[in-house]
Design a protein that fits this description.
seven-stranded antiparallel beta sheet; single chain; 245 residues; alpha+beta; 14 strands
Amino acid sequence: MCTVIYIPNNKKVLFASLRDESPARARAIAPEIYTKGNISFLSPKDPMAGGTWIGTNNSGNTIILLNGGFENHSRKDTYLKSRGIIVSELLATESPVEEWKLIDMEGIEPFTLIIWSDEALFQLVWDGIQKHEIIQDKNIPHIWSSSTLYNTAIKKHREELFWQWIVEEPFVSKQSVLNFFKTFTNEQNGFIMNRDEKIKTLSYTSIEINDNNTTMSYYDLLTNTYDDRSMPFIKIKDQIAIREI
């Protein structure tokens, strides 16, 4: 939820996310498939709040959470709803961008969502006052860093490292992305970070999307364990057509 990468790769799309959190927080549940109505989605789960920071569903939608909006904010003692719950709710819809527009954000902590939906790439931001919808160029790579942990100068430095790697890397894969993350391990601001064991990078998640399915690979950095799950796409309109036949 603190570093997100998007890379178009031939006919595939690759997302990668690093989760920076307190190591004292309850260990996340490895990715599982959850179903609500006609929608199934694949995601890890935060057992504390019950939501998630990343997921992909059988309508071909992918959603990744970044804490904060465009810049850091002063946290309140309490909020009405977990941002991770919002991600889970949107994953259970066929049109997450349209559903996001309808949500009342009053009392919700600022956040950013990176969404892949209908073969388009969106950056949706709630800055604590208003919503912002930004359509990103899906034909070029992108990197985003959380505003709650990284200032403008550090974000720029991370972006420079990313583009240097993109130019030099002949073959991009989930493993090569993880290897890239490991090249900048500054304790305070690296991709793999550790700020005095108070907050550190806990996991790495990648999502690969092709024409027929999506595959999520989850790497728990604390326990050094891997989990890989795949899920085929099933469009709601296709299900309806089959029933009519």
